[in-house]
Amino acid sequence: MKDASTHHVFALIMAGGAGRNLWPVSRKKIPKQFLDLFDEGTMIAQTVERIRRSVRDENILVITGENGRKLLLDNPCGILPENIIVEPSSRNTAPCIALGTAHIKKRDPDAITVVIPSDHLVLDEDAFITIVDAGIEMARERNALVTIGINADRPETVYGYIQADEELPLPAALSGGYDFRFFKVKAFAEKPDYTTAVHFLESRDFFWNSGVFIWHIDAIALAFERSMPDLHKDLLNIYHHLGTSEEQKVIEDVYSWIHPVSIDVGVMEKAEEVLMLTGEFGWTDLGSWDEVMKVAGSRALLGEVNSGKSLVQIDCENIYVRKPAGKIVCTIGVSDVIIIDTEDALLVCNKGLSHRVGEVADVLRREGLQQYL
């Protein structure tokens, strides 16, 4: 879609997450978004390359921590150094987006922003870009907050959900040849337990939350002002000091007192109007080793790319092994097991339970073993 109309379109790629559930490969020093899980490039490099189809290079910004900045500079993936925004500490997505919004508004007071996570997998990039471009047009025409929902096909407990309200007709410019749908949003729901997830699936009006948001810069600023007035004041304070000698101090001061809160809870649940496009584009957030195993299996990578020829299986099935090169791993008479081996840590987990791997980080921290995080 890159033409004259994209001059005011920006992308804000959020790359500050820790990826705890992909331990022991995802660590503080190299978190999930900087990993190459399928020998296809790092997650963040794929994200940048994908969004470049709709957004000019000079308008693609990444917001991350200091370690993320160093990783981006050491391993360039098309991001201009001046487009790296550094958060002093992680405070969840609402402060992250507020800081990014201040930077984008400083550059272009008429900007449309596409907010995207840095660590999600998209298999059908053409379909993804089509729906993003549609969201950009809707944000431009309706001055609304737009999100993208994923058609749920199973009762998933590791995703957040969006409940659809009234279905709306697609604008005339988007009504031909597209298989996505358009709704008003009724509610956002946090990650549910299994029983609730089954209820969501059976109701047919809940969609997985992709974490992708599209809006005009004024629309999100107004939403912050209405729903999180204190954070909005902080946003304005940062905005006025960007480019001055006080910029770093002001940002650090703000981050020293703001509380972590997600954009869903802080803003989207309270916003006057949120619109949702839904569609299929082979999305997963790779939030657990089970998700990685599923993708690897669909690509016939199990026992091949991740393990090479140094994996011996005898009477085994449904085994996923990831290990350092040059090490042989042998499994006998086991099934439905995930084995993740690194130089200093080993994870052995039943398939279906890898969403609990984040609990390991809590234990290691409590036991004073932070060197393994």
Helix content: 25-40%
Low-confidence sequence ranges: 303-307
Number of helices: 11
Overall strand count: 16
Oligomer: single chain
Give the radius of gyration: 21 Å
Distance between the termini: 41 Å
User: What topology, given as strand order, has the largest sheet?
Assistant: 6-9-7-8-10
Can you tell me the overall shape?
globular
Which structural class matches the secondary elements? alpha/beta
Salient structural properties:
alpha/beta, 5-stranded mixed β-barrel, 3-stranded mixed beta sheet, 16 strands, globular
Q: What this model shows, in words?
A:
The structure is a single chain. This protein is α/β, with parallel strands linked by helices. The protein is built from eleven helices and 16 strands. It has a five-stranded mixed β-barrel with strand order 6-9-7-8-10. α3 (93-107) crosses α6 (217-227) and α6 (217-227) packs across α7 (229-241).
Task: Write a brief caption for the model.
This protein has about 375 residues and is of the alpha/beta class.
